Amino acid sequence: MAITHETVQRAAGFIRSRRDLAPDVAIVLGTGLGGLADEVRDGAVIPFGEIPGFPVSTVPGHKGQLLLGTLAGRRVAMMEGRFHLYEGYTLDQITLPVRVLRALGATVLVVSNACGGLRPEQRAGDLLLIEDHINLMGVNPLIGPNDDRLGPRFPDMSQPYDRALLAQAERIAREEGIRAHRGIYAAMTGPCLETRAEYRMLQRIGADVIGMSTVPEVIVAVHAGFRTMGISVITDLCLPETLEPASLEKILAVAAGAEPKLRKIVHRMVGEMAV
């Protein structure tokens, strides 16, 4: 692991120089899911490219900036966009923001993404509350020397997603009448979408949705000591028997249509959670 305590503190120190706010909750917004940022009050924006060590977002639907302010009465640090392996970034670059958010003081991390659904009971626009994941990227962000100041050499991954937060999200979805499944998120590198044969494999190994992000960040979040909640927006159905070509335009449109549901759940979670 090339990320050092000094690298993290340098980035955190720069952010504090721009806005001295110790967040309770950190939020990562995925493809097409930036609407929640509109609800942040007294916000200060820092483009990713200005923060030492941070890459620049290149994916449509990612603004590429850090927002610091308040949401539902709590201090938040919100990533409007993220980084991916398929952009050519290293896992150190992809996961550095998670470590910096932890160094700023956040103890809860909420990650969101757009994904493909693998189960016939799902519909485009549904939400999936992540209870576990499968790492099919072939790499792990913790490979390499371990800096014990950042986390343990062998972090336990038996509960990467916090069960109390998962139950809270399920309750809120039920109260708001939002279709939200509980399930397993599988991550592959992308950028191409998967083949029919790959979708069959994913179904057989127990995946409920497939995406190209989130897992590296959650592994590092566990290593750093975050309580983590993951929410996916199912933007298209990846059923081998009825598979249709997907387009980025359609994926972004479905994500935008479902975003108010995600916004409602996260807004209430932030306001109600104990941190």
Nutshell version of this structure?
This protein has 275 residues and is α/β, with parallel strands linked by helices.
Structure description:
With 275 residues, the chain is of the alpha/beta class. The protein has a single domain (5-272), classed as Nucleoside phosphorylase domain (Rossmann fold), CATH 3.40.50. The protein is built from six helices and nine strands, in the order αββββαββαβαβαβα. A five-stranded mixed β-barrel has the order 5-8-7-6-9. α1 packs across α2 (91-103). 46% of the residues are buried. The model has no long low-confidence stretch (mean pLDDT 94).
Which secondary structure elements does this structure contain, and how are they paired or packed?
Elements: H1 5-18, E1 25-29, E2 41-47, E3 65-71, E4 74-80, H2 91-103, E5 108-117, E6 127-135, H3 163-176, E7 180-187, H4 196-204, E8 209-211, H5 215-224, E9 227-237, H6 248-272
Parallel strand pairs: 1-4, 1-5, 5-9, 6-7, 7-8
Antiparallel strand pairs: 2-3, 3-4, 5-8, 6-9
Key attributes of the depicted protein:
275 residues; alpha/beta; Rossmann fold; 5-stranded mixed beta barrel; 6 helices
N-to-C order of helices and strands: HEEEEHEEHEHEHEH
The number of domains:
1
CATH superfamily: Nucleoside phosphorylase domain
Gross CATH architecture: 3-Layer(aba) Sandwich
Beta-strand level of the residues, as a percent range?
15-25%
Q: Evaluate the radius of gyration.
A: 17 Å
User: What share of residues is helical?
Assistant: 25-40%
CATH topology: Rossmann fold
> What spatial order of strands do you see in the largest sheet?
5-8-7-6-9
- What's the total helix number? 6
Number of strands: 9
What is the molecular shape?
Answer: globular
Q: What is the residue-averaged pLDDT?
A: 94
SSE class: alpha/beta
Whole-Å distance between the termini? 29 Å
